[in-house]
């Protein structure tokens, strides 16, 4: 049983090199190879291979080498390790970044590239108080960053529930206080869900949500380079 939540992040731009892509493609299980190659455009292929490489490393680091070769999907599409159902994991990708998390707790993660003003999206999909929180920042750049902070936090919670996008983002509220503490309100206060934000100052936002039932768990962040060692 693992007792630490391990978070993995990688830049996949190296996979633009065809020789690197083809070499690393051989490092992941056959199902992941087929999934990566099923995408029409290079970006999709790179992202799919990238998350597969992160899951492979996460399983190896946690002492479950080979666990990534047997992945199944729950009723709402949430993946799990067939041979290690007590080990939870989640994957995400955006632009040239991929993210993976492995944990003893139910977990969701999300990475998003910061693209600019999303005020209208906030008004459409967020609670009024969340949109107001975004608008209180003084510059468009800060407002954009705030939007993607909330978006990634919401997305990773939606993934923890197993409902994904079937759970609308305005069905629940997140409160980020002045001390950067994050509280979830979904049919009442939900302290069993804890959040972790990661800012690498690279034009992306990263977030993780854990359902810990009030427990705390050590977390480590690993920024890895894609290589033959994965």
Q: Main attributes?
A:
Ribosomal Protein L22, Chain A, 2 domains, three-stranded antiparallel β-sheet, 31% helix, globular
Structural notes for this entry:
This protein is 31% helix and 27% strand. With 230 residues, it is an alpha+beta fold. It has a four-stranded mixed sheet, covered by helices on one side. Strands 6-10-9 form a three-stranded antiparallel sheet, covered by helices on one side. The protein has a two-stranded antiparallel ribbon with strand order 2-3. A hairpin with a 5-residue loop joins β7 and β8 (182-185). α2 (30-37) runs antiparallel to α3 and α5 packs antiparallel against α6. The longest helix has 21 residues, at 140-160. It is globular. The mean pLDDT is 91.
The rounded Rg comes to 18 Å
**Might you state the CATH topology name of the largest domain?**
Ribosomal Protein L22, Chain A
**Count of helix runs:** 6
Mean pLDDT: 91
Summarize the helix and strand pattern as letters: EHHHEEEEEHHHEEEEE
Strand content: 25-35%
Distance between the termini: 22 Å
């Amino acid at each position: 049983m693992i007792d630490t939540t391990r978070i993995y992040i990688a830049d996949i731009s190296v996979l633009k090199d065809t020789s690197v892509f083809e070499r690393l493609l051989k490092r992941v299980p056959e199902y992941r190879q087929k999934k990566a190659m099923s995408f029409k455009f290079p970006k999709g292929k790179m992202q799919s291979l990238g998350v597969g490489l992160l899951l492979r490393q996460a399983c190896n680091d946690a002492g479950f080498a080979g666990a990534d070769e047997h992945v199944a999907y729950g009723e709402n599409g949430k993946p799990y390790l067939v041979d290690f159902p007590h080990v939870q994991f989640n994957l995400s990708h955006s632009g040239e970044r991929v993210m993976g998390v492995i944990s003893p707790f139910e977990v969701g993660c999300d990475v998003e590239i910061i693209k600019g003003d999303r005020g209208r999206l906030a008004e459409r999909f967020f609670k009024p108080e969340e949109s107001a929180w975004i608008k209180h920042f003084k510059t468009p750049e800060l407002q954009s960053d705030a939007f993607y902070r909330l978006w990634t936090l919401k997305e990773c919670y939606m993934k923890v529930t197993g409902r994904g996008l079937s759970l609308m983002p305005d069905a629940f509220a997140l409160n980020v206080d002045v001390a950067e503490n994050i509280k979830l309100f979904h049919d009442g206060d939900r302290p069993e869900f804890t959040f972790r934000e990661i800012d690498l100052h690279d034009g992306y936002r990263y977030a993780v949500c854990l359902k810990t039932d009030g427990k705390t768990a050590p977390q480590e962040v690993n920024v890895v380079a894609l290589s033959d060692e994965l």
